């Protein structure tokens, strides 16, 4: 027999399960207490795949910019992407004397505005980076930027979106 007490108990239990699931989803996505995703730098810093990128962003003095209002689209090289560079290249770029060159390389991975994979799907063209040069984006078969593949798309941030890529792009 179905009575009112059973119904209330079942609803309360379901509510607690739903609350727990929501809470877990928010923490898994790096959400802040206000329900908004964290900024690009905070999200990248919380993901072990981007530790080299975060170190480089800090060394180049770009942390404050990429934590700013935006919006930005960041094509973020993973640690594996940095590992593909010639031996010693990352160490060389991280030296204080090479701060300007490092900033140039990193800003070549940033596009003003927010471009999700859905917006890039089916398109092909070039877009200006924050660094000033154009990058070619091809969304006709997955998404590639120059010759880097997007390996994880649409990591949402409060000030834009991150797309993880498998290669460090070097400006001309």
Explain how this protein is built.
The structure is a single chain. This protein has helices at 4-28, 40-45, 51-60, 63-66, 79-83, 89-93, 99-107, 117-120, and strands at 72-77, 110-112, 124-128, 134-138, 144-145, 148-157, 160-165. It folds into two domains: 1-30; 39-165, Roll (FAS1 domain), CATH 2.30.180. Mean pLDDT is 83; it is low at 1-33. With 172 residues, the chain is of the alpha+beta class. The protein has eight helices and seven strands; from the N terminus they run ααααβαααβαβββββ.
Summarize the structure.
This protein is of the alpha+beta class.
CATH topology of the largest domain: FAS1 domain
The Rg value, from CA coordinates, equals 20 Å
- In the CATH scheme, the class of the largest domain would be Mainly Beta
What is the first-to-last residue Cα distance?
75 Å
Strand-pairing-aware structural class: alpha+beta
Descriptive labels:
globular, 22% strand, alpha+beta, 172 residues, 2 domains, 8 helices, FAS1 domain, disordered N terminus, 7-stranded mixed sheet
Topology:
Blueprint: H1 4-28, H2 40-45, H3 51-60, H4 63-66, E1 72-77, H5 79-83, H6 89-93, H7 99-107, E2 110-112, H8 117-120, E3 124-128, E4 134-138, E5 144-145, E6 148-157, E7 160-165
Parallel strand pairs: 1-7
Antiparallel strand pairs: 1-2, 3-4, 4-5, 5-6, 6-7
